[in-house]
C-alpha cells in the first residue's frame, strides 16, 4: 500500500455496484426464464428486496452490473420507482465479477464503491463496514457473517484485529466466518483489477489483498443467497416470515 486509505464518513457518499450479470446455471431448474436478480421472492423481484435494504442503510445510488439476460434487468430498472437512483453497466462479453467491477469503474469514474452480490441478502448493518475500513485506513473491507457450515461458501480467516489473513476454498466443512457478499473497495484495489480479461473478484482480486490490509467487519442478522433451488426456497421462507437460513 502507498499509505492509509481515506474513506468518507457516510455510506450515502459511496455508490453501490450490484453484480447482477451471472448466468444462474444452478438456479435454472427453479427460475428458468429470468436472471437471478429478478427471481421472485415473496411476490417481488429479489433485486427489489436488496435495494430496499440498501436504502435503509443510507445508500442513494446503485449501478446494476448486468450480463446474461441484462435486457430484462434494464426493463425492470426503467420501471423502478424506489428511493435508490439506478444506472446500468452492461457487459457484452462475460467478464467475471471482477471484470464487471472494472468495467463500471471505467464507465463511471469510480474511486470507491460498495460491491454487492445480486443474489445475496443480509440483515447485518453496513455502517460497521465503513467504520472498520476508516479506522484501519484499509484499502477495502468485507462484511462477514458467522455460519454453522462454511463448506458451500468458503471461509474467511481473520486475526484479532479483524484483518483478513486468507480465503479458504469451498468444501472445508465446519462453523466459521464467510463473506456476506458486500465489499468496500478503495482506489488501490479498484486500480489493481485487470481490465483486459475475465477475472473473479473474490478468488483473484480480493484474495490477493488478504494479508495486505484488507479487513472484515463481522455482522449479526440473517443471511441468505438464492444461488441454488434449495437456498431459493429458503429465501422465500425467510421473506415470508416462516423461517430462514444462516
Briefly say what this structure is.
With 246 residues, the protein is an alpha/beta fold.
Please describe what this structure looks like.
- Helix 3 crosses helix 6 (201-209).
- The termini are far apart.
- It contains seven helices and 13 strands.
- The strands form four sheets. A seven-stranded mixed β-sheet has the order 5-4-1-6-11-8-12, sandwiched between helices. It has a two-stranded antiparallel ribbon with strand order 2-3. Strands 7-13 form a two-stranded antiparallel sheet.
- By secondary structure, it is α/β, with parallel strands linked by helices.
Summary keywords:
246 residues, alpha/beta, two-stranded antiparallel ribbon, 7 helices, 13 strands, 29% helix, disordered C terminus
Order of helices and strands: EEEHEHEHEEHEEEEHHEEH
Low-confidence stretches: 242-246
Q: What general form does the structure show?
A: globular
Largest beta sheet: what is the strand line-up?
A: 5-4-1-6-11-8-12
Structural classification: alpha/beta
Query: Mean of the pLDDT scores?
Result: 92
Q: Largest sheet, if any?
A: 7 strands, mixed
Amino acid at each position: 500500500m502507498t499509505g492509509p486509505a481515506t474513506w468518507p464518513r457516510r455510506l450515502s457518499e459511496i455508490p453501490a455496484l450490484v453484480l447482477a450479470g451471472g448466468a444462474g446455471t444452478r438456479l435454472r431448474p427453479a427460475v428458468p426464464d429470468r436472471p437471478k436478480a429478478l427471481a421472485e421472492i415473496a411476490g417481488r423481484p429479489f433485486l427489489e428486496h436488496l435495494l430496499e435494504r440498501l436504502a435503509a442503510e443510507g445508500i442513494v445510488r446503485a449501478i446494476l452490473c448486468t450480463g446474461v439476460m441484462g435486457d430484462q434487468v434494464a426493463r425492470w430498472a426503467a420501471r423502478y420507482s424506489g428511493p435508490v437512483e439506478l444506472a446500468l453497466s452492461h457487459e457484452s462479453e462475460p467478464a467475471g465479477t471482477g471484470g464487471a467491477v472494472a468495467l463500471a469503474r471505467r464507465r463511471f469514474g469510480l474511486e470507491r464503491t460498495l460491491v454487492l452480490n445480486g443474489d445475496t441478502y443480509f440483515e447485518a448493518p453496513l455502517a460497521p463496514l465503513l467504520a472498520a475500513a476508516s479506522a484501519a485506513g484499509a484499502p477495502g473491507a468485507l462484511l462477514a457473517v458467522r455460519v454453522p457450515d462454511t463448506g458451500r461458501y468458503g471461509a474467511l480467516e481473520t486475526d484479532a484485529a479483524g484483518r483478513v489473513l486468507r480465503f479458504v476454498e469451498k468444501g472445508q466443512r465446519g462453523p466459521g466466518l464467510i463473506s456476506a457478499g458486500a465489499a468496500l473497495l478503495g482506489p488501490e484495489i479498484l486500480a489493481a483489477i485487470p481490465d483486459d480479461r475475465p477475472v473473479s473478484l473474490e478468488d483473484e482480486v480480493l484474495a490477493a489483498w488478504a494479508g495486505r490490509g484488507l479487513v472484515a467487519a463481522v455482522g449479526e442478522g440473517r443471511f441468505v443467497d438464492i444461488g441454488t433451488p434449495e437456498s431459493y426456497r429458503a429465501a422465500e421462507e425467510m421473506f415470508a416470515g416462516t423461517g430462514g437460513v444462516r
